[in-house]
Write a structure and sequence with these properties.
Elements (H helix, E strand, L loop, with lengths): L2 H8 L4 E2 L7 H6 L6 E6 L2 H17 L3 E6 L13 H19 L2 E4 L11 H14 L3 E4 L7 H18 L14 E5 L12 E4 L4 H8 L14 H11 L1 H4 L4 E6 L12
Parallel strand pairs: 2-3, 2-5, 3-4, 5-6
Antiparallel strand pairs: 1-7, 6-8, 7-8
Length: about 260
């Protein structure tokens, strides 16, 4: 992947391929204006835990960032908490996290566990892309055991296509996304290969505080220790990236072709 083209695509967001490495100031000098990043997640926790630090870093660098949630993740409710009540808790947590990180949050109304992959859902996400006009879209990788995550991946791929289609008449004009990346999620690990690393150290502590708004982050909804996993993952990714705390992404396969005049 051409790092210069990538940096120009998102403005001053701190997104770097790990090889070859250059200083953050050198990368920033290549980008004149901040861009916009849109993260699209099946559930709010997925969005904040895997893409929230990236969005926060974009906001920190005076770009703009938006998190689109296809559902509220309400069926992850702990015992003795009604599903609808837990959904509203998830919404409230996401709104608090968004305010803290300086990002926008958008909610769609698909039931948790029943996010459909069809033309209607792809066109709804297409409309969101056309409304917010992101330069970069980040979403789930398709290699997941979770049905909602797989469907979200497929929805987004179609939505990006629809959004750019000039001949598709919708309420807003067509918009082309420059790049698509996939998030580093423990549920989506099958054939996930990280190839892009983001320095999130400037916003790391703020991101942790934002995640702590969620009961699942605090271990109140099940066995999985989200805080330990994703906190440790950000440190582990430093071993390859060289950053103190890093988030890893996987580039869409269409962005991996390099054209060289000579070696």
């Amino acid at each position: 992947m051409d790092r210069r083209s990538f940096a120009q695509g998102i403005g001053s967001a701190a997104m770097l391929s790990v090889f070859p490495k250059r200083s953050l100031s050198a990368e920033a000098s290549e980008a004149a204006h901040p861009g916009k990043i849109m993260a699209i997640a099946a559930h709010p926790g997925d969005g904040l835990f895997t893409m929230g630090a990236l969005l926060a870093q974009q906001a920190e660098r005076r770009g703009t960032a938006v998190l689109v949630n296809l559902s509220l993740g309400e069926r992850g409710a702990p015992k003795n908490t009604p599903v609808n009540q837990y959904g509203e808790m998830q919404r409230a947590a996401t709104e608090k996290a968004a305010r803290l990180l300086g990002i926008d949050a958008v909610f769609m109304d698909y039931p948790d566990g029943e996010i459909p992959f069809n033309e209607e859902s792809a066109l709804r996400v297409c409309d969101a892309i056309r409304e917010h006009k992101p330069d970069i879209v980040v979403t789930h990788w398709g290699g997941s055991w979770h049905k909602d995550h797989r469907n979200c991946h497929r929805i987004v791929r179609d939505a990006v296509f629809f959004a750019a289609l000039e001949t598709l008449e919708r309420s807003r004009a067509a918009h082309s996304v420059s790049k698509v990346f996939y998030a580093d999620n423990w549920e989506d690990a099958n054939r996930f290969v990280a190839d892009t690393y983001i320095d999130v150290d400037p916003v790391y502590e703020k991101w942790l505080r934002a995640c702590d708004f969620y009961p699942m982050w605090r271990g109140q909804t099940g066995f999985f220790r989200y805080n330990d996993y994703y906190g440790s993952l950000s440190v582990m990714r430093r071993c390859v990236s060289g950053f103190k705390h890093a988030v890893a992404l996987m580039a869409d396969e269409s962005q991996r072709t390099q054209r060289l005049r000579f070696l």
